[in-house]
Amino acid sequence: MTWRNTEFELGGVNHLALVCSDMQRTVEFYTEILGMRLVKTIDLPMDAGQHFFFDMGGGNLLAFFWFKDAPDAVPGVSTATTSPGIGDFTTAVGTMNHVAISVPEERFLEYRAKLKSKGVKVAPIIDHDDSPMGYAPEFHDDVYIRSFYFQDPDGILLEFACWRRELAQPGDVGHTPKTASDRRPRSASTV
C-alpha cells in the first residue's frame, strides 16, 4: 500500500535550482555527459542572469541559475570539498549538500563505468546498510541503497543511487533527532 500525505497533496520535487559559474559549461555537462534534455531557458530581467531547466526523467527537473554578480563557491562551506568515501563532505547549514539521482540497480555498475569513460572522476561505491558505520565493507543482502558520488564542473556534489528495498520498514525509523544544541559549530578559521 502506498503512503498518502493527508496534510498536503505533494507530488515530489518540481525542480531543484542550483547556481553555476558558467551556463554553457553546465549545459554541456548535463546534456552531453549525463544525457539530460534542456527543456527551458530564461534570460532574467535587467540582465541579472539566466535560469535553465533540464529534464532528469520521471517528471523531475534540475534547474540552474547563472547570476552575473554571484559570489564564488566556498569549498567546505557552500559546497563539499570532496565525496563521501573519499573525505570530509560537510557543508554549512542551509546549503544543498548533494543531489542524489535515481538509477536502476541493474545498470548501476554500467553507469559508473560509463561516467569514468567520459573522464568524470567518481568516488568509490558505498553500500549503505544499518551497521554502526552506516556502510558495508562488502556488498550483502541487507544493503538498502547503493551509491557513488561525483562532481559537476562547479564542484556540485552529485550521487547516482539505487534503492534496493522500500523504506519505512521496521527499524528504519528509530533515531532521536538532534537539535541545534547538539552541534559543534566550526569557526571560520577551521573551515
Automatic annotation (TrEMBL):
<dbReference type="Pfam" id="PF00903">
    <property type="entry name" value="Glyoxalase"/>
</dbReference>
<dbReference type="InterPro" id="IPR004360">
    <property type="entry name" value="Glyas_Fos-R_dOase_dom"/>
</dbReference>
<protein>
    <submittedName>
        <fullName>VOC family protein</fullName>
    </submittedName>
</protein>
<feature type="region of interest" description="Disordered">
    <location>
        <begin position="171"/>
        <end position="191"/>
    </location>
</feature>
<dbReference type="InterPro" id="IPR029068">
    <property type="entry name" value="Glyas_Bleomycin-R_OHBP_Dase"/>
</dbReference>
<feature type="domain" description="VOC">
    <location>
        <begin position="12"/>
        <end position="163"/>
    </location>
</feature>
<dbReference type="InterPro" id="IPR037523">
    <property type="entry name" value="VOC_core"/>
</dbReference>
<dbReference type="InterPro" id="IPR050383">
    <property type="entry name" value="GlyoxalaseI/FosfomycinResist"/>
</dbReference>
